[in-house]
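Lab notes, practical 5.
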Amino acid sequence: MRTLYLDAFSGISGDMFIGALLDLGVDFKQFETELAKLNVTGYHLHAQRIAKSSIYGTDFDVHLPETVHKDEGFIETTSTHHHDHPHQHADGHTHSHGDEVRHLKDIEAIIDHSDLSNYVKTNAKQVFTEIAKSEAIVHELPLSDVHFHEVGALDSIVDIVGAFVALELLAVDQVYSSELTDGSGFIKVAHGMMPVPVPAVMQMRVGSAIPIKQNPEIHTELITPTGMGIVKTIVDQFCPIPDNQTITKVGYGFGNRETPQLNALRVMLCEKKN
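Output from the prediction step:
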């Protein structure tokens, strides 16, 4: 039995999760081919194995025509993310729609009408629903009114769908995780200064048993709404690595925030001992 273990000592985001699975051995070209079945365009995939704090891992990102801040749920913000190193590129394959907004039902329709596997479709929609429900409660909106900008929507669609494309390619039987670590303080978004954990992440904690601790030395967000949604959907148990599991491979997926410590999601592929 193959187990994926998440060591979330520096939180989790969609691109950190995908980067970690690519670092663990998911083939980038196969990942690109499967993700193309989503049948959307307007993005480029970037994956590069680099070193941070003298530790090698994979830096993954979804690049868009405009600079937008990643993984802020359904709240549009702006940011920049620069790459100064050579990297693999992959293009999406159909169309984009300018400045239109997308509601949850629109995103579900894109996923349903794609050529993705049922596993990817079902789990990606579950994450989007988790995020949409939390944003609806935080902003006191009907679920049907929750939306976000075309460009931000595309970013999140590729991150969330890509997470399950990569996980399906990895072919594990179960997912365990350590407790999650978030930062502290406040971050600036389009609507002002938000506390960490950000409101959408905090709302997703309601009714769950996901263990989260905050690091007072890190003054930024480490757990994004996308990361939290992925964790809620895939993790079977929060615990140390079980004694009956042998680690067979370790991978790192880097985050793009600068922090005083290594900003990465460490993942381990484990096999049950005989």
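Observations recorded by the TA: Residues 2-272 form one domain. The chain has one domain: 2-272.
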